[in-house]
Known about the structure:
With about 240 residues, this protein is mainly alpha-helical. The chain has 2 domains: about 5-190, Tetracycline Repressor, domain 2 (Orthogonal Bundle); about 190-235. The chain has helices at about 5-25, 30-40, 40-50, 50-70, 80-95, 100-105, 120-135, 140-165, 170-185, 190-205, 210-235. The protein is elongated and about 70 Å long.
Amino acid sequence: MTESPTADTRTQLLNAAADLIAESPGEDFSLRAVCDAVGVKMPTLYHFFGSKQGLIDAVITRGFDMYLGEKSAMESSEDPIHDLRRGWDAHVEFGLRNPGFYTLMYGKVRPGHSPVDQSRPSEILRALTAEAAAQGRLVVDSRQAAAHVLATNVGLTLRLIVLGHDDQELSAEIREGVLASITGTSASESPEARFGHSVIEYAVAHPGVLGPTETQLLVQWTRRLSEHAEGSDRNTR
């Protein structure tokens, strides 16, 4: 009986390849094993992908499609720093749920080569850091900030995949350290200072609530209070 390739068969082959990769991240996988998992013969796989590299590239593209589909469902909070936090957590969660796809998307390194699809989520990240920079909330260049966030986020996610378990506390600590480094705040600041920064973040992200002049005054006053609280806290240590 002759096989009749369908779009569903293609999806099954992609998922089977991703599952095999997830079982042994960083190691090679067999095309025959992919075909056996779906119950088709090698010509069917070559019909869809042409070669092993073609299959790998298709798995990478599907992984980014899945990832961006989830990100597009996240509504903007109109606060770029808050959205960077949410984006970090969503990135880690996606990687841990889809280790096979993720290790190909970000873990299969070829010197001098970057998958074209990697640019899609990077553009979203750069848009957030550019927005934060426009609000005067970064102490580094917006593109440098985006690169710093992405490199650390990817490194952490790959490490957690290798360990085989989630570590939300570690992820939160690293996330806040990265955000502190690009915003000039302290990851270990006092509760009063954290509250002050939250007020500033919200006010700057929603200038229409108080008006431009009042927003600037609130920012100045809140920073003074936060600095005073930090100074008082240091004096009592």
